[in-house]
Design brief:
Number of strands: 10
CATH topology of the largest domain: TIM Barrel
CATH superfamily of the largest domain: Aldolase class I
Helix content: 25-40%
Oligomer: single chain
Number of helices: 13
Distance between the termini: 45 Å
Largest sheet: 8 strands, parallel, barrel
Order of helices and strands: EHEHHHEHEHEHEHEHEHHEEHH
Shape: elongated
Strand content: 5-15%
Strand order of the largest sheet: 1-2-3-4-5-6-7-8
Length: 347
């Protein structure tokens, strides 16, 4: 997800249950998402509703209509693989984790929703998955997050990604608290992504979406829909094609600006910092005769037309050195008129 140079965004389009069980609609979503030049698509997998929620749950009658069979998922996954998208499956039940693991589907990651973060059975089966495990950590405290991470690590599962962000249909930006991502990353020493759930009609949706990118977090997840603004399940924070394309471009921009952790100075910045033409050079404040010692009274700092090979911070090292030839007023102090070995000896 990060190359050797500048950071690149890793953007996930989440379909959730926006398809509402319409297989043709989901295929259309896959087709459109594959044209966006983003990285991944996320599906919600649920095979046994009774394993996921009680029958008296208000969503139970509907969710039974929204799920697909394993044969249908076989075709969906194979079709998506051909589109060149990474696949992430948010597994809502143990059965879906078993299905992915047993059939060795070409899935890049399994995600456990925050609702299952400390579910022993879900964690146990997820630990058997050979690739990345994503843990949804919204609405979870440090102890709950630690429990899930320790559970997986004890089972030799270390390829873990934390996904921060919660859906409150939609999420009020005043409650996002992105600074918490920094604290979580520092504490758990794990990569962390941001799942944005800002309202689709919020005028600042795109800005809020890339805010974590401005902080150096390159993984972004957004709900996606074919029918922007239309009332369907999970539509509240779902963006359409134009928004997602703009968000992708903005993420690329802010991550390029953010750069990468490197103490070296870029070529352009180095030119800007050259002593002489940009930073003031050490010069002769007045004519200095050969053999005369350099002092606080005969040296000065000025911007010059030429570069200098002596840095500003070496000024005090020059004091007491002798001029090896006559130096004219405003002439740069460098190796032509001062023995630089003396400068080093004055360290």
């Amino acid at each position: 997800m990060i190359n050797s140079g500048f950071r690149k965004p890793y953007i996930i389009a989440e379909t959730a249950y926006n398809h509402e069980g319409n297989l043709r609609y989901l295929y259309r979503m896959i087709d459109e998402i594959s044209t966006l030049h983003i990285n991944a698509i996320k599906f919600h997998l649920l095979l046994d509703p009774e394993s996921y929620m009680t029958k008296n749950h208000p969503l139970f009658p509907n969710i039974k209509k929204w799920i697909f069979s394993t044969k249908q998922w076989d075709k969906i996954i194979n079709y998506t693989n051909k589109k060149g998208l990474d696949i992430i499956t948010l597994c809502d039940d143990v059965e879906s984790i078993k299905y992915i693991t047993k059939n060795k589907k070409k899935i890049q990651a399994i995600e456990l929703h925050a609702t299952s973060l400390n579910d022993y059975f879900m964690l146990n089966y997820a630990s058997k998955f050979s690739k990345k495990i994503i843990l949804g950590i919204s609405g979870s405290n440090q102890k709950e997050i630690s429990y899930a991470i320790d559970f997986l690590k004890k089972r030799k599962k270390h390829d873990i990604l934390l996904m921060y962000g919660f859906q409150s249909y939609p999420t009020n930006y005043t409650e996002i608290n992105l600074s918490k991502m920094i604290a979580l990353k520092d504490f758990f020493k794990l990569p962390i992504g941001y799942a944005d759930h800002t309202g689709f009609d919020d005028p600042n949706n795109e800005l809020i979406s890339i805010a974590a990118g401005m902080m150096g977090f390159e993984i972004l997840e957004k709900h996606y829909t074919l029918d922007y603004g239309k009332k369907r399940i999970d539509y509240q924070s779902a963006v359409g094609k134009k928004q997602m394309e703009h968000i992708r471009n903005l993420m690329e921009l802010v991550l390029t600006i953010y750069g990468f952790k490197d103490k070296t100075i870029s070529k352009s910045e180095k030119l800007y910092g050259d002593t002489g033409q940009m930073k003031k050079a050490i010069i002769a404040k007045k004519d200095i005769n050969k053999g005369e010692k350099l002092s606080l009274t005969n040296l000065w700092f000025k911007r010059t037309a030429k570069k200098s090979n002596i840095k500003q911070y070496q000024f005090l090292q020059l004091i007491g050195c002798k001029a090896i030839r006559n130096i004219n007023q405003d002439e740069i102090i460098d190796s032509k008129n001062v023995n630089l070995k003396q400068v080093k000896n004055n360290l």
